[in-house]
Amino acid sequence: MSIKQAYEQSGQSALFEHWDDLSDAQKASFEENLQETAMKNDPSQLVEDCKRAIELSLENSNGNDSIEPLPHTSYGSILGKAELENEYRDVGLQELAQGSVAVILMAGGQGTRLGSSQPKGCYDIGLPSNRSLFQIQAEKLLRLQAIANCPRPIPWYIMTSEPTRQPTEQFFQENNYFGLSATQVTFFNQGTLPAFDLKGEHLLLDSPTDLVKSPDGNGGLYRAIKDNGILEDLVAKNIKHVHMYCVDNVLVKLADPVFIGFALKNKFELATKAVRKRDASESVGLIASKNGSPCVVEYSEISKDMAEATDEKGLLKFRAANIVNHYYAVDLLKRELDNWCKSMPYHIAKKKIAFYDNKNKTYVKPTEANGIKLEQFIFDVFPNVPITKFGCLEVDRASEFSPLKNAPGTANDNPGTSRAAYLNLGTSWLVSAGAKIGSGVHVEIPGTVSYGGEALEKYNGEVFDKDLAILP
Q1: Which of 318, 314, 300 has the alpha carbon at shortest distance from 394?
Q2: Which reaction(s) are listed as its catalytic activity (predicted)?
């Protein structure tokens, strides 16, 4: 059976309405592109997956789901608990010193919302040093390697997308990997999925010879790890623990020894960080349990009464805001990765999708949603992990989470809020070290100088009267 026949039997005959108008070379290119897509996603199965995703989006909760905060055995906090934090840090540093920790960065997004065509990790939030997100994170990794006396560079796996792969690699090369060893950085692409019309019945064309394709969501990380040989590489390097995070968090602590120690001390195979909800009305996904299994619940899934409910300490019962910052035991990935890739559900996103109309032989740019993009969510595997093996660590938002999501001038999560969070944190470290900071002055502490506020004693008594970046 030809690839054309395979798609036709999957109900996609409309893809070929212009077939007779194509040259032999164009037909060959079209078939090659269709074959490439089919090798990753069987067209018949894709149609079924899309229909099921539409059904799931229409289904309401059955009303019998029991949504509760995580049990205390799975939920921990280091807020105001310096002794516990130090205990976890010591355990994590010991593991880093064994060379058994790696980091995975999800960096497939472009800075489109920020007005940039570059990968988001290349973005300059306006620090005095003009450091990019990639440089900020790379230098934290450098510093941690020195603190932990790592026997070798910490492996850093960077998941890009088709549009961001080449410019990301070029950015690292042009900047000499920001001081890291080039051999410790591995780039790999997340997958793509074809787009459908709004009924989920017909695939859309991007050109006369190719389908519309888009990234498969952050849940595509699992298949990307599998398909690109990342798991095999982790095993070959005797890595036991993986820290995963998103590129847009300017305060992220790569391979955080406190987080690693928390997971190890409690024998968790999958763990996640959370920050405390600002208030009951904050629209954020929550780490919780559903029917006794760990999960992320959307804010729309809990009632107003549940959102406002408090515990015996007067804190919100549902307060663990999801920040997509996870720990994985490599043994868990070895055991479950194949199953996750096969069983994870798809979700739909209705979008305005430009497409090629092969019936009228025109390109169409819609003004309203006309199609469906499929995606997977990284937290959809949480319910597959026994709650006794799942942990959530509450950390300080001001120290660990300030995402860059929106354009300059918007209300929150923008370059200005990210810059302020980064500068406020570094300045607070200097104050704690005894430095004298002028009114309204903010000082940038690069990762090469301090990973988490350490090694700043030499600035005791020093006066800072203008915004600047401390030199390493």
Answers
A1: 318
A2: N-acetyl-alpha-D-glucosamine 1-phosphate + UTP + H(+) = UDP-N-acetyl-alpha-D-glucosamine + diphosphate
For 300-343, how does the pLDDT look when each residue is reduced to its tens digit (9 = 90+)?
888 999 999 999 999 999 999 999 999 999 999 999 999 999 99
Q: What is the DSSP letter of 411?
A: S
| Burial profile 122-145: b = 16 or more Cβ within 10 angstroms, e = fewer | bbbbebeeebbbbbbbbbbbbbbb
Examine the fold and report which residue of 365, 381, 405 is the final residue of a domain before the chain moves on: 405
The span from the first CA to the last CA of the chain, in angstroms, equals 63
Torsion sign, CA atoms 137, 143, 146, 149: negative
Q: Which helix (H) or strand (E) holds 201?
A: none
Residue 11 Rama label (left phi>0; alpha psi -120 to 50; beta): left
Q: Which residue, 375, 405, 435, sits at the end of a domain?
A: 405
Are 337 and 452 contained in the same domain?
A: no
Helix, strand or coil for residue 86?
Answer: helix
State CA 320 to chain mean position distance.
Answer: 17
CA 379 centroid distance within chain: 10
Q: Are residues 366 and 443 in the same domain?
A: no
Q: Under a CB-based contact definition with an 8 Å cutoff, are residues 143 and 472 in contact? A: no
Dig out the tokens for 22 from the structure.
């194509």
Whether residue 150 is found in the same domain as residue 292: yes
Supply the pLDDT for residue 217.
Answer: 93
Regarding whether 433 and 335 lie in a shared domain, the answer is: no
| Residues facing 297 on adjacent strands | 286
| Domains of the chain: total | 2
Claim to verify: residue 230 and residue 117 sit in the same structural domain: yes
Q: Which two tokens stand for residue 320?
A: 């663990």
Judgement on whether residues 278 and 390 belong to the same structural domain of the protein: yes
Separation CA 56–CA 348 (nearest Å): 9
Q: What is the pLDDT of residue 472?
A: 78
DSSP 126-185: --TT--BHHHHHHHHHHHHHHHTT-SSPPPEEEEE-HHHHHHHHHHHHHTGGGGS-GGGE
Count of beta carbons in the 10 Å neighbourhood of residue 12: 21
- Residue 431 has a pLDDT of 97
pLDDT digits (tens, 9 = 90+) for 237-279: 999 999 999 999 999 999 999 999 999 999 999 999 999 999 9
Q: How far apart are CA 430 and CA 455, in angstroms?
A: 10
Write out residues in the chain with pLDDT < 70, as ranges. Answer: 60-64
Question: Which runs of consecutive H residues, i.e. helices, occur in 349-432?
Answer: 397-400, 415-432
Amino acid at 148: A
* Amino acid occupying residue 189: N
Here the CATH number for the domain that contains residue 44 is 3.90.550.10
Q: Tell whether pTM > 0.70.
A: yes
Q: What is the pLDDT of residue 136?
A: 98
Q: Which domain holds residue 300?
A: 3-405
The reply to whether 89 and 238 lie within a common domain is yes
Helix, strand or coil, per DSSP, at residue 264: helix
